[in-house]
Write a structure and sequence with these properties.
Two copies of one chain form a homodimer. Chain A is built from 15 helices and 23 strands. The first copy, chain A, is of the alpha+beta class. Chains A and B meet through strand 2, helix 3, strand 3, strand 4 and strand 5 of A and strand 2, helix 3, strand 3, strand 4 and strand 5 of B.
């Protein structure tokens, strides 16, 4: 059977999660590979998810006073080198432009891997007085990092993102904005992507090159691996001192600004796939589903069937749903399998008998539940089902995370857990870099964050047994 | 006076149009220069105009079935070279990436100046059957062209644009899409930007590198120079043959696809400035004004004034207008000058006496007309004034173009006109490249297009006197 073939072509996630992921991104037609090594094409189905992420995240930004700008994609080498930690972090992985037209450049430039240096160079002239503060700017763009190993959405040489860059009069204002944007990210992940996240601070080892503090939201994928899903950095006045960004304050004194930056990327699409997907393919949360409802006419050649399907589409479109009719000449079974692969949240089945009885069938992508509903009640029921999916997908992901979050009180326990399982492990830490290095080396796991919601699991560091300072989440990361 | 100083800082357009333009883009805070030569920063006021252009143009695209995608920003050199005319057109003006991280690349890559070659490389694998056609894809991105002389919005080394790339089963379908998108562009310019355009075809000399036919919309700026505002290209099957993009048609035969591409860029912002601006600064058509209405409280320290201003703002915001209150501690006169500089379409003045009388003043940016209106009628009146501005700005621009469009029947007339005036000149042409070259060399003007609305001005070519084939618009171009 044709529909079976389509499903069989996906590897089961229990068998080989990495291959399942690759199969889904290809079969759901989200991306394609290109002649440009490590770079990919976002096909319509993949890019449309990004458009929905972008518009909803942008609205949340603007509600907090963010203004969008656009800065150049090139950074002159001398500019990248101004802040010492920053250049060390990024120089090994940038793409260098050396020629413009037929001439070699006087100074080579890299394609931005991130734009802190460009924003600093801009703010240096744009900020003069306390009246010019705060600056709360953001840009939507693509960035390039010359990765050796790449995977669609998760790690590619070019990816799409937003990068916020702000400047403030005081350290307190900068810290407040850093936390505010982390909260925007966490709320967005949970309410829009239906992905629960752990909010916390990165250890010094894992923080951003040039930051005083990096905050992160960490999500757990279906295979138990962690995905860093958004970060927010407080730079203090480090960049300001390196670039000379000063302002005259109300007291007439010249002071350095305090800065932040924060970013989310197209890897969120990878998170959606790996949190909600199943062996039939992608499963999209309704709020980021380019098509929320697909009407599938059954026995569509019979009189009145296609007309009814179109009528139902129109009713739902008028209510503001993103809805289509699949009137191709494929069999209903093939269409079902295809739409399940593409993660369309709701399918409506409607054939001659249904029409006669004045009803149709709603089928949920997440639970495969089938609900009979009269035409009159269809729009209300679809709204109800989509709302329920959005909520329940988050709940299921949260339950999965809870079931895969463990506690270790000493190295034996930590080793035993990671020998058997993949998930988050909560453990106490003394705060020494040496212990963090030891755990990473021995177990091939990294500290994901020091969560804001601390617990006192024990008094002693899981590694060295000295007095514990912080509870840390450990995990294998993408 | 402070407010005078702000206005005096702009050069009058009659005195030095180029300097007036530069003054406006700086003083209206649309852009800033950067350390990256030839590249600029889009500041919030400038980028917000682009966001409004983008969202409205994108909605028009999607209404015609366009789907958005995203392709890599890099083009391997071998890929750029596949189509002969295309590489000759672009190779001299691209930026080359030669190193990734610390290693030299095996093959250098350019930063895309346009993406025909990438789309062809993608379509080659993505299109197999007539069922896969048409492909009607578009991407929003930035592109790089290594220009020697640059001007904000009009010509910069990096600019933002959209590029549509389509593939069709037949030559007729490709031609229809090429024309359809030109019409979308023309309608968008007139209805949204209030800029009238001449639609026509480029001569072979002026067409896009690799195209069979290039269609264009040409607008006339306030100084009489022409600005190419959007182009739509029909490639026939030239790229398809060069790249091997074939499909199996319904008759089971293998055929080459027919392709198109079409683009509009951030230079449209330059067009808005140069068509609608005046000696007080920018004047934005309401549909692309990030702030459509600014409420200016008069004597704002008096009791109830700021509260009333905020109340008016809320009334207008609830009706869907983009509206703000200027409650800074600047004088009203300063605020008026500043908002005129920034091109905000409508200003509302409201002070203690107005409040007592239950009314306020609406002031139009384009005509400076002042209209007294009661609070109850404010929202309706604002809607009416914004609608009127949108229509009348287009009418005024059209009248200006008509007044600056001339006719020449022979070289003496053509020379005489361009010696005295800058504008469009309509003249007959025999179709020979030699005549086009002669006119360009002698008069430093270029053929803008062969308009779709042809007229028979005379029987003979303006240059050689041989039999005329086409009427051409000539002009000095940006």
């Amino acid at each position: 059977m044709a529909e079976k073939k389509m499903v069989e072509a996906i590897t089961a996630m229990e068998e080989d999660f990495a291959q399942w992921y690759t199969d889904v991104v290809k079969k759901a037609e989200l991306v394609d590979y290109t002649s440009v090594k490590g770079c990919m094409v976002f096909k319509p189905a993949g890019y449309a998810i990004w458009e929905l992420i972008q518009s909803q995240l942008d609205a949340r930004f603007k509600a907090t006073g963010v203004q969008n700008v656009y800065l150049p994609m090139f950074i002159p080498e001398s500019l990248l080198q101004v802040e010492k930690d920053h250049v060390e972090g990024f120089a090994p992985e940038v793409a260098w432009v050396t020629h413009g037209g037929l001439q070699p450049l006087q100074e080579r430039m890299c394609v931005r891997p991130t734009s802190e240096t460009l924003f600093c160079d801009f703010y240096k002239n744009d900020i003069q007085s306390y009246r010019d503060l705060p600056k709360v700017y953001n840009q939507w763009c693509s960035v390039v990092r010359w990765e050796k190993e790449t995977r669609p959405f998760l790690r590619s040489r070019e990816f799409l993102w937003q990068e916020g860059h702000t400047a403030h009069a005081t350290a307190e204002d900068a810290e407040a904005r850093t936390q505010q944007m982390l909260n925007v990210y966490a709320d967005f992940c949970e309410q829009v992507l239906a992905i629960p996240v752990v909010k916390g601070r990165k250890t010094d080892k894992e923080k951003f090159a040039g930051a005083e503090a990096t905050y992160t939201i960490e999500a757990l994928m279906h295979d138990g691996k962690a995905l860093q899903s958004g970060t927010s950095h407080n730079f203090g006045d480090g960049f300001a001192k390196a670039f000379g960004i000063q302002f005259t304050d109300k007291d007439n004194k010249l002071k350095y600004v305090h800065q932040t930056s924060w970013g989310m990327t197209t890897r969120l699409i990878g998170a959606i796939i790996m949190v909600h997907g199943d062996n039939r393919g992608l499963c999209l949360p309704p709020k980021v589903a380019p098509t929320q409802v697909m009407v599938v006419p059954i026995a569509q050649k019979k009189e009145g069937v296609l007309e009814k399907a179109e009528e139902l589409r129109q009713i739902l479109a008028d209510k503001g749903f993103r809805v289509k009719v699949d009137d191709t000449d494929k069999s209903p079974g093939w269409k079902f399998a295809e739409q399940e692969m593409r993660g369309i949240p709701v399918r409506i089945e409607c054939g001659p008998k249904d029409i006669e009885a004045g009803k149709c069938i709603i089928c949920r992508r997440d639970t495969f539940e089938k609900i009979e509903v009269s035409f009159e009640e269809l729009a209300d029921k679809v709204a109800e089902v989509l709302d329920a999916m959005q909520v329940e997908m988050l709940e299921r992901a949260r339950a999965h995370r809870e079931a895969n979050t463990f506690v270790a009180k000493n190295m034996e326990e930590l080793e035993a857990i990671f020998a058997e399982k993949t998930g988050f492990v909560k453990a106490m830490w003394c705060g020494d870099r040496a212990c963090e290095d030891t755990i990473k080396e021995k177990l091939s796991v990294t500290s994901r964050c020091m969560p804001f919601e601390q617990e006192e699991l024990s008094d002693t560091c899981v590694c060295c047994g000295k007095k514990a300072q912080k509870m840390v989440y450990w995990g294998k990361a993408y």
